[in-house]
Amino acid sequence: MLGDLVSPRALERILQEAAQTRGSTLELLDVASLEDILKKEVFKRLQLSVPAPLAKKRVSEVLSELIKATQERLLPVQGSQMPALEEAARRFSLYFDWPETQRLRGVLTVARQEEKDGRDVADLVTEAQNLIDTMDRRLQEGLIEQGQDLAELKAAFERVQGMGGKDVRRLDTLIGQIDEAQKQGTLLPGEVERARTITFNLRKLLESSVVQTVSADQAVIPTSATILDPDAQARVLALEQEHAAQQLNLTEREYMTLLHSRADLREQHDRLRALQGQSQLTADLVEGWRAQLKVERDRALSEQRAQLTQMEAALAQVTATADMRIALDSARHLLDSGSLATDELQELQGMQAALAAGVNASAQLELQRELLDIERSARNVPGASEELTPLLTQARTTLAQGGTVDVTDLWTRLERHMGAAAQEREDFDARADRVIREYDMVRQLAGETTQRLGRLADTLRAQRHLGRMSAQARERYAQTLIDAEALLTEAHAEHRAAQEVTATFGQDALSGLLDVFDFQDSAMMDTDPGPAIAARVDPFGFGSPTPAAAPPAPQPTPATSLFDALLATSTPDSAPGTTTPAQDTPSPFAFNLPAQAAEPVETWLCVQGQIQHGAHTLAAQGMATLLQQASTLGLQRLDMGDSTHVWSARSTTPGEWRVGRALNWTDLDEQVGPWLDTGQS
Asked: 20 to 30 Å CA-CA from 526: which of 76, 170, 199, 657?
């Protein structure tokens, strides 16, 4: 539990020296002595790299675990521990491309043989348990990421499911498979990637369908370069940037081992990251980069296979130790599965060099292992690899030339980065707590912003409870925080806007407006609006409804409804407190036109309160203003009626509304219903 604050070697030395000071050894320390060492020597050592409160917190956590472990040790261990380890290892059999999986396989194989020969396997059992713990952390990190992907896929599916077609059905099937795997604690990266790709294409079709009629099953997927409408083009371009970033992340994960071992390739990858930050990354660039990395990996695999063959021949002349057999077995299985075995081959090279050293073979082998431990640990600590990589290369060169190497300075540098990373993690957790806490203050707003914030808050809760994190998990944690904090700022703004509406139109304004947002109300879909709708001058119910048979009464100019308030600026000549007959100054939403049996349905596209397509009438401009306020409140559908027409507005993209108006619901549904629902004719 202290491995992210201080190096294992340093911690071991502290414990050994403290035990000697107390006239004992590390193996013979009792619980009381170990507790005393943790409170004194270890606590003092931790303060060199982290603040005292953080050091105290971690020591307290270790003491709690120590008490639990002591109670467990009181139970006698019967027989071999190998069956339990092999059972635990079966959980990870699906992830054969993980280096830890192949390493564990080699460790268990050697441990089985060593135990059969009557040798002590305590060190091998410890290593196997450490590998299982590492893989369990990696699995938990993967499940959190998969859960976040699943939540986003479900949210996107709600937007595209109305398009229909085989791709929508395939996406539905994939989401079901991923959902079931998530419940079972299993990773399905291939299915997630396929679902992402289908979702990306469907969303592009949906966004482009605002200005052109498309089918979800059409062969040609639109791109930002082929769409003429500027607004739709901007939305599709944003989707393309998001998808390219996801593909770059996937490429980095797939070729992580190669990127770690090749500084030149890492520099090229960082340049693509810079393009992503400048919103200039494209799918073609990522695809070309992925093809280049595949060529480089194939070349590296050929070289490593030849290198392993040479090492096997050279090491066949000596008696293979357990460590040597594990490294050989792990390297062989990794290369056979198409994965690079860089660390394993480096370990074998160190063994070969140690054997060549003769009398210093044991010391050289120990130093080689320690250098490899430092390198592996540095990969999961921000900034550590950049500083230590050249120093590790120099140390290995010195060791190969027969020189001596002091690794104390390397550990000290690593621990400094560990301390900074631990403090950063504390800051991350505090920021996550703030987002989760403040989300609860705005969660009553059911808009797109709040929904996305809620999904990120769920992810932050899970990330908050992770223990030690890999570098990739730490980066995802940081990005989730950035995204969530940005959405939280938007949500607070929407919440303030909602409060202003309440203050302006009364305490019941929000509930009255939200009453309109009802997908299940069958009265909204009545084919005949009847007197109930025809009589409703105020669709939000803020005033008293006027009977259908009564003649229009004079209306005061001061706004008595949300419609009137939003449209009041359209009648600046009206003096406050005066009244005007309805027939002289008609309401923009009450048209005194004779009903026609074949009157065409009118449609508009409104974006951010502005009419993008459709006639720029006074009524339509008022509706656009109303819908902008509805977006602020998180609404996605409004169905309403005035004295002569029925209106329906739908939103599937924040700030964008499709609006239709007809004499009755039947005409509206038959002529533009599909377009209102999905944007498709």
From this structure: 657
Residue 20 burial (CB < 10 Å; 0-12/13-18/19+)?
Answer: exposed
Q: Classify the C-alpha dihedral 155-160-166-167 as positive or negative.
A: negative
- Listing DSSP states for 221-280 in one string gives PP-TTT--SHHHHHHHHHHHHHHHHHHHHHHHHHTHHHHHH-HHHHHHHHHHHHHHHTT-
Are 223 and 236 in contact by the 8 Å Cβ rule? The answer is: yes
pLDDT band for 568, please (50, 70, 90 cuts): very low
H or E element, residue 199: helix 189-208
Task: List own/partner pairs for 114-122 with CB under 8 A and 24 or more apart.
Answer: 114/322, 115/80, 115/82, 121/82
Give the Cβ contact number of residue 560 at 10 Å.
16
Q: How many other CB atoms sit within 10 Å of the CB of residue 249?
A: 18
Residues with Cβ < 8 Å from 491, sequence gap 6 or more? 439, 442, 445, 449, 450, 453
38 Cβ neighbours under 8 A, 6+ residues apart = 59, 62, 63, 66
What is the secondary structure of 148-186 as a DSSP string? HHHHHHHHHHHHHGGG-SHHHHHHHHHHHHHHHHHHHT-
Nearest residue to 293 via CA among 273, 264, 330: 264
Average pLDDT over residues 581-592: 38
Cβ neighbors of 223 (< 8 A, separation 6 or more) are 204, 236, 240
pLDDT cut 70: percent of the chain above it: 79
DSSP β-ladder status, 579-580 and 555-556: antiparallel
Q: Are 673 and 525 spatial neighbours (Cβ–Cβ below 8 Å)?
A: no
Q: How confident is the model at residue 461 (pLDDT cuts 50, 70, 90)?
A: very high
**411 pLDDT higher than 70:** yes
| Six-digit token string for 651 | 């939103």
Greater confidence (584 vs 167) lies with 167
User: Which has more confidence, 218 or 179?
Assistant: 179
Question: Which residues does 418 contact at the CB level (< 8 Å), separation at least 6?
Answer: 4, 5, 6, 7, 49, 381, 384
Nearest to residue 277, comparing CAs of 245, 302, 313, 325? Answer: 245
For every residue of 555-578, DSSP letters joined together read: EESS--SHHHHHHGGG-TTSPTT-
Cα gap 490→131, rounded to integer Å = 43
pLDDT of residue 221: 72
Written as one string, the DSSP assignment of 613-670 is ES---HHHHHHHHHHHHHHHTT--EEEEE-SS-EEEEEEEETTEEEEEEESSHHHHHH
DSSP characters over 464-528: HT--S--HHHHHHHHHHHHHHHHHHHHHHHHHHHHHHHHHHH-TTHHHHHHHH--TT-GGGG-SS
Q: What is the pLDDT of residue 274?
A: 92
List, for residues 44-75, the tens digit of each pLDDT value: 777 766 777 777 777 777 777 776 666 554 44
The Cβ-side half-sphere exposure at 316, using a 13 Å CA radius, reads 6
Mean of all residue pLDDT scores within the chain? 78
Q: Residue 378: pLDDT above 90?
A: no
Residue among 176, 166, 158, 230 nearest 198 (CA): 166
In 3D, which of 194, 283, 208 has the Cα closest to residue 243?
A: 283
